[in-house]
Amino acid sequence: MAHAITKISNQAHNLLTMFLACWLITTSGSINAYEVGSRLLATGGVSQIEGSAGSGIVPWAVLPGYGQKDEWGGEVFATHVNTDDYDLSMIGVSVAINNRVELSLATQILGIDSIAQPLGLPDNELKQTVAGVKVKLFGDLIYTTLPQVSLGIQYKKNTDFDVPALTGAKDDHGVDFYVAATKLWLSGINGYPILLNTTVRSTKANQLGLLGFGGDLDDSRSLLFEGSVGVLLRRDLLLGFDYRQKPDNLSFAKEDDWMDLFLAWFPNKHLSITGAWTELGDIAGQKNQSGFYISLEGSF
Amino acid sequence: MKFKTINSITHCILLSLVSISIHADTLYKELGESEGINKLVTKAVETSHTDQRIAFLFEDTDDEELIVQISDQICFLSDGPCEYDGQEMDEVHSGMEITEAEFDIFVAIVIDAMEYADISHSARNKLLALLAPMREDIINQ
After folding, report:
1. Which of A11, A221, B95, B96 has the largest count of CB atoms under 10 Å?
2. Which residues pair with residue A202 across a beta bridge?
3. How far apart are CA A21 and CA A291, in angstroms?
4. Residues in B lying within 8 Å of A, measured between beta carbons
5. Whole-angstrom Cα Rg for chain A
6. Rounded Cα–Cα distance for residues A235 and B107 (Å)
């Protein structure tokens, strides 16, 4: 019965993703550009894997979408990552208000068939919900000498704790705090704008939280660094690299830092498509996980 | 793809971008000199009149005069043979209470105008980088 429900929720997840893709592609060309906010193309970043604005795996100080001061905007997004032994899906929504506050909600599903059967696990997927808030503290991505700096909170909750409990995780929920500083230099390298982001995060989440929070090896908060560097090759094309440190709280399996090389395309202010090659290291005992990442985001 | 490969690719891209600058003209030349600048500014002012969100800011402007003033500024900033003898930015925009959103809309119009004037991605951003510091004297005046 649980398996059937899992299958249905998986299919619902996929269906929602496909619907989102179709909706974005068919509407992005026809919606009047004036309906979206006033900020410049690509300045909202894309949606990172926990639902906040940033790059593939790192939250940035920017607010999502294009809403400038006194404007607001919303985003819907879907992401899929396929590594050698796992697949990770994420769908979510976010809202940016007054270019000051971001609210986001995302669900993640990690398919763990590769270890579920061999280890006799009760579930063949791990699922969690992430609710995020981000507040811009000061600065502007482009117009101030100082970077744009924001404070973010991500509340994360496992849907089921059965599998994380088996791995040695202590809690089924946790809160990440982070501070991000992001800056885009327009003149960059010979007129190619350069973007730099530094994020510092306090967390107890194992593999984003999908394997629970805290562990038998370490149950304290870790202070971790995340960074992104990017170059705007064209006004609608951002090439970049992310690095994200991870904690190592569970004795049963090592957790590695993550990195990716991404290309984000912004054909218009309603749609962005991001592709990336990810290097995710060891995940729950399966070694050297790497693979493609694809993400779609619609702004309105 | 391992970290070393990603590292090499990144270095390759950055070095290519830097090497292009060794053979570059002045920004004034890259913008197409007075002809190119005039083309971009004229287009930007024309488009501003037709954009419902900011057209009201240009209702009472003397377009010809505005085009000359902005062109002189850009010519001067890009190391061209000009001087800007107009008013300071905060004086020019005093009382207009231009918002951050209206400013961004105008910047997007300028970027489109630069594309229209066949100005390269790199020259566009160099000019924007020179114009960006003016924002604080233009908005909320």
Report:
1. A221
2. A177, A223
3. 21
4. 1-3, 6, 9-10, 13-14, 17-18, 20-21, 24, 52-53, 99-102, 104-105, 107-108, 111, 120-126, 128-129, 132-133, 135-136
5. 19
6. 13
Name the residue among B13, B107, B121 with its Cβ closest to that of A191: B121
- A20 in helix, strand or coil? helix
Number of H helices, E strands in chain A: 3, 14
Question: What would the pLDDT profile of A123-166 be if each residue is shown by its tens digit?
Answer: 899 999 999 999 999 999 999 999 999 999 999 999 999 999 99
A237 reaches B (C-beta below 8 A)? no
Helices (runs of H) and strands (runs of E) counted in chain B:
8, 0
Please judge whether A38 and B120 are an interchain contact, meaning their C-beta atoms are less than 8 angstroms apart: no
Smallest Cα distance from A218 to chain B, Å: 28
The answer for residues whose C-beta is within 8 angstroms of residue A181's C-beta and 6 or more apart is: A61, A139, A147, A148, A149, A197, A198, A199
Please report which confidence band the pLDDT of residue A30 belongs to, taking 50, 70 and 90 as the band edges. Answer: very low
Q: Does A290 touch chain B (CB under 8 A)?
A: yes
Q: How far is B78 from chain A (nearest CA, A)?
A: 13
Alpha carbon distance A110, A212 (integer Å): 13
pLDDT of residue B7: 73
Better-scored residue on pLDDT, A16 or B94: B94
Q: Residue A31's pLDDT is what?
A: 45
Name the residue among A70, A186, A290 with its Cβ closest to that of B125.
A186
